[in-house]
Amino acid sequence: MSTKVVDLRSDTVTKPSEAMRAAMAAADVDDDVLGTDPTAHRFEAEMARMMGKEAALFVPSGTMANLISVLVHCDTRGSEVILGDNSHMHIYENGGMSTIGGIHPRTVSNNPDGTMDIDKIVAAIRHQGALYYPTTRLICLENTQGNCGGKCLSVEYTDKVGEVAKAHGLKLHIDGARIFNASVALGVPVDRLVRAADSVSVCLSKGLGAPVGSVIVGSKAFIQKAKIARKTLGGGMRQVGVLCAAAHVGVRDTVGKLADDHRRAKVLAVGLKKIKQLTVDLSSVETNMVYFDITDPQISPAKLCQVLEQRNVLAMPVSSKRLDSHLCPQPLSVEA
């Protein structure tokens, strides 16, 4: 007898589909560090085409994808990166740009909709030659913005930030871990949504359901440098076509299901709002994330998670009052 478990902890908890497993078993592979894995080549070429960029590179994780991008754009130690104070790159990626790259993060406040005010971005830029300051070389955006509830950055906003970057001789990187969610929610082709960016990271193991990996896209020159940084960080893998085959199935089969994830997230939010001990901002639920706050001081997120787990529902506390739920194409796992 098996029990169905509703796992809302994250959209990273999906299991490889049968189609993914079959593709992995049948993948034509070779040594990708030597540049000869045919499945990796095909997948990277397809991702570059989809994102409207010249080239792509498969890497083990989104954190590595973002770090490689920063290292390539900021190849002088002591460079500065402008990014949101509530961004994944700033909060959850172990300070890699500082510890490994010697790169200084300069934060700008994220608004509730995930944006940073354009005038604040401009005010944060510091140019080469100032005696006391690091030199700004990169602006980073996150789309969707996870800590803001999976909010989408519009193409108009992204273009404006791109214009600022270009006007000041800077590069623009987009942490596009869930960029396909943003594309589907906004009804904007994904290549148009990232046109202003010099580089984009795309996570394959979140809502798209692949077991491992992210891709970085950008110019051919950028990707060539990214390959060197990937090797330096220990991310060069051998028969990586096995993983790229699963990722290809995720992109092929799952992007079309993301709208349903968004619909179900909204349904969940509406239901949670009916519970008097909880508050949910329905307007904040744009994609596959639902954040809700507990208003009853006698209920802690940890305790609520324990009670939910007893009822075969898994969720994750994110603060002393808040829980986070993610919807994904395979929201149910089976537990013996």
Largest sheet: 7 strands, mixed
- Taking the alpha carbons of the first and last residues, their distance comes to 7 Å
3D shape: globular
- What is the succession of H and E elements? EHHEHEHHEHEHEHHEEHHHEEHEEEE
Strand order of the largest sheet: 2-8-7-6-5-3-4
How would you classify the quaternary structure?
A: single chain
**How large a portion of the residues is in β-strands, by DSSP E?**
15-25%
**Spans with pLDDT under 50 lasting ≥5 residues?**
331-336
User: What value does the average pLDDT take?
Assistant: 94
Verbal overview:
The protein is an alpha/beta fold and 336 residues long. It has helices at residues 18-26, 38-51, 62-73, 88-91, 96-99, 118-124, 155-167, 179-186, 190-193, 220-232, 241-254, 258-273, 301-310, and strands at 3-7, 55-59, 79-84, 104-108, 135-142, 171-175, 199-203, 214-218, 278-279, 289-294, 313-314, 316-317, 322-326, 332-335. The strands form three sheets. A seven-stranded mixed sheet has the order 2-8-7-6-5-3-4, with helices on both faces. A four-stranded antiparallel sheet has the order 9-10-13-12. Strand 12 and strand 13 (322-326) form a beta hairpin. It is globular and about 55 Å long.
